[in-house]
């Protein structure tokens, strides 16, 4: 079997500094003899181009993947540039954000339909172990970074006259220690202004993301008794929840799969009046365009150059802001990339077998029942089956709208 070429594309999302492959994992792939690795030059990637070149990767021009050989498998993290409807004839590994009916999802997934018979999406969000746990995820660092940005936003707001100032452009930190040191340096002023220790509430605290958020608050100096750690047991009664309004920072870390009662709502916020402590909401889950979003108090994603958006319509109590950045782990890009890529590596080692098995039947759908769960490349075959399932959903919805 000829080596499979993994083509690491540049990330075009603004402020994105992470990488699906690192120089360390790229070297391990090359050393296995099963892969070649092609890397696009990328000035915003946390790893230098030379770091990849030194381990045997081939460097190519920035954003040149559309002209890559169809045998190359295009690898990346975040979504492709918007407002592009050209066909995608390559197989891609990425977070496509089109399987949970996000805004514009049909336009995204049908680009691979137009790229048949060779187009394929292996969505990183849905590569799963047999127990349903993701083989690799940025969840821990998303929660950790989300809690950090939320605390920085709280400090900026509380420390300003009339709480009118907002957190400005927030750049990546070289490491976790530098981030913790910066936040700790600002918490004393927050305590002095509030006249007490700050409080945090994390929903989804038992998952990867929630554990990251809780760990940050602990490392930053929040007292353990002031960190409410909620999960399914605490939310089973259904919201809205007064306890959220009693915290200064609320971090939402749930993985949304269906409609649930709102955690907070404009009515409950208004009813709390000037007794409300809550000033910053961090929606790490970022289901902004999902109709089932349990935090219906904002409607736009925020970015690292403008991390917060104000909750509109409040007439009493302090101002409230929302952090809804959908790539929070890039606040710690090197550590987040290292952890994710190392977790993904064992599955990547089985990818050539899945690609070789798919080649004779390219363009022909398979179902989950067609997957041999005993084979090591199972994770990729299940991702392939899921792609065809979601594409069929898009076709049915499109047909229904035109009927």
Automatic annotation (TrEMBL):
UniProt enzyme class: oxidoreductase
Stated family: Belongs to the AlaDH/PNT family.
Chemical reaction(s) catalysed: L-saccharopine + NAD(+) + H2O = L-lysine + 2-oxoglutarate + NADH + H(+)
UniProt-annotated catalytic positions: 78 (proton acceptor), 97 (proton donor)
Pfam family, one: AlaDh_PNT_N
Keyword ATP-binding: no
Subunit and partners: Monomer.
Pathway: Amino-acid biosynthesis; L-lysine biosynthesis via AAA pathway; L-lysine from L-alpha-aminoadipate (fungal route): step 3/3
Binding of NAD(+), residues: 133, 207-208, 231, 235, 255, 284, 325-328
All copies of domain Alanine dehydrogenase/pyridine nucleotide transhydrogenase N-terminal, residue ranges: 7-145
EC number: 1.5.1.7
GO-annotated biological processes: lysine biosynthetic process via aminoadipic acid
Entry-linked SMART domains: AlaDh_PNT_C, AlaDh_PNT_N
DNA-binding listed as a keyword: no
Gene3D superfamilies reported in the protein's UniProt record: NAD(P)-binding Rossmann-like Domain
Recorded GO CC terms: cytoplasm
Record-annotated disulphide pairs: 209-253
Single GO MF descriptor: saccharopine dehydrogenase (NAD+, L-lysine-forming) activity
Region (Disordered): 356-375
Protein name, entry field: Saccharopine dehydrogenase [NAD(+), L-lysine-forming]
Alanine dehydrogenase/pyridine nucleotide transhydrogenase NAD(H)-binding domain location: 179-324
Keyword line: Amino-acid biosynthesis, Disulfide bond, Lysine biosynthesis, NAD, Oxidoreductase
């Amino acid at each position: 079997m000829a080596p499979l070429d993994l083509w690491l594309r540049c990330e075009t999302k603004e402020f994105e500094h992470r990488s699906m492959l690192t120089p360390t994992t790229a070297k391990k792939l090359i050393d296995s003899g099963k892969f070649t690795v092609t890397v696009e030059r990328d000035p915003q990637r946390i790893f230098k181009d030379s770091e990849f070149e030194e381990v045997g990767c081939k460097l190519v021009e920035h954003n040149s993947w559309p002209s890559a050989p169809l045998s190359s498998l295009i690898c990346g993290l975040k979504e492709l540039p918007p407002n592009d409807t050209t066909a995608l004839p390559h197989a891609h590994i990425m977070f496509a954000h089109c399987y949970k009916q996000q805004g514009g999802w049909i336009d995204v997934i049908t680009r691979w339909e137009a790229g048949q018979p060779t187009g394929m999406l292996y969505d990183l969000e849905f590569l799963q172990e047999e127990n349903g746990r993701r083989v690799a995820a940025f969840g821990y660092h998303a929660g950790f970074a989300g809690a950090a940005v939320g605390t920085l936003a709280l400090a900026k707001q509380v420390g300003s006259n009339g709480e009118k100032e907002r957190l400005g452009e927030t750049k990546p930190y070289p490491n976790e220690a530098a981030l913790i040191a910066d936040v700790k340096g600002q918490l004393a002023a927050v305590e002095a202004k509030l006249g007490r220790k700050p409080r945090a509430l994390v929903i989804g605290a038992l998952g990867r993301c929630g554990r990251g958020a809780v760990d940050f608050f602990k490392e930053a100096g929040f007292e353990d008794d002031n960190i409410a750690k909620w999960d399914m047991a605490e939310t089973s009664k259904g919201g809205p929840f007064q306890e959220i309004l009693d915290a200064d920072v609320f971090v939402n870390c749930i993985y949304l799969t269906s409609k649930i009662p709102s955690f907070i709502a404009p009515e409950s916020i208004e009813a709390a009046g000037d007794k409300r402590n809550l000033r910053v909401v961090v929606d790490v889950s970022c289901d902004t365009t999902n109709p089932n979003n349990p935090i219906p108090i904002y409607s736009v994603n925020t970015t690292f150059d403008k991390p917060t958006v104000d909750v509109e319509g409040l007439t009493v109590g302090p101002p409230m802001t929302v952090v809804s950045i959908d790539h929070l782990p890039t606040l710690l890009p090197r550590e987040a990339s290292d952890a994710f890529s190392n977790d993904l590596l064992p599955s990547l080692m089985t990818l050539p077998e899945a690609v070789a098995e798919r080649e004779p039947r390219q363009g022909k759908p398979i179902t989950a029942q067609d997957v041999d769960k005993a084979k090591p490349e199972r994770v990729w075959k299940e991702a392939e089956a899921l792609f065809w399932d979601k594409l069929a959903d898009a076709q049915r919805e499109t047909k229904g709208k035109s009927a």
